């Protein structure tokens, strides 16, 4: 779970995010991601991995490491990262009406 508050300088961010989004899909154990942003700019992304090994592989990926460094230097005022285990998950979807 990654929450962040961006700086005004977001040059290059969208392209990097797109590239990392493509890369992470190739990490064994990656299961998907959900994200949202408030009107004030606070962003939250939740990436799902099957196990800690997948998280560790992603953490060590060279392009991801470089993007994290650029994020600290340019894109983020602050961020928080939390690694947690999902013990239960439930989904609701409203049925479509015809």
TrEMBL record:
InterPro entries: Dimeric_a/b-barrel, Jasmonate_Hydroxylase-like. Keywords: Monooxygenase, Oxidoreductase. GO terms for molecular function: monooxygenase activity. The keyword NAD does not apply. This is Antibiotic biosynthesis monooxygenase. It comes from Streptomyces actuosus.
């Amino acid at each position: 779970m990654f929450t962040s508050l961006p700086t005004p300088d977001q040059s290059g961010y969208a392209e990097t995010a797109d590239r990392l989004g493509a890369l992470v899909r190739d990490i064994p154990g990656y299961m998907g991601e959900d994200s949202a942003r408030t009107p004030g700019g606070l962003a939250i992304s939740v990436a799902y991995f099957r196990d800690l090994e997948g998280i560790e592989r992603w953490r060590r990926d060279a392009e991801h490491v470089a993007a994290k460094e650029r994020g600290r230097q340019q894109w983020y005022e602050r961020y928080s990262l939390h690694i947690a285990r999902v013990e239960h998950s439930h989904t609701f979807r409203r049925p479509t009406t015809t």
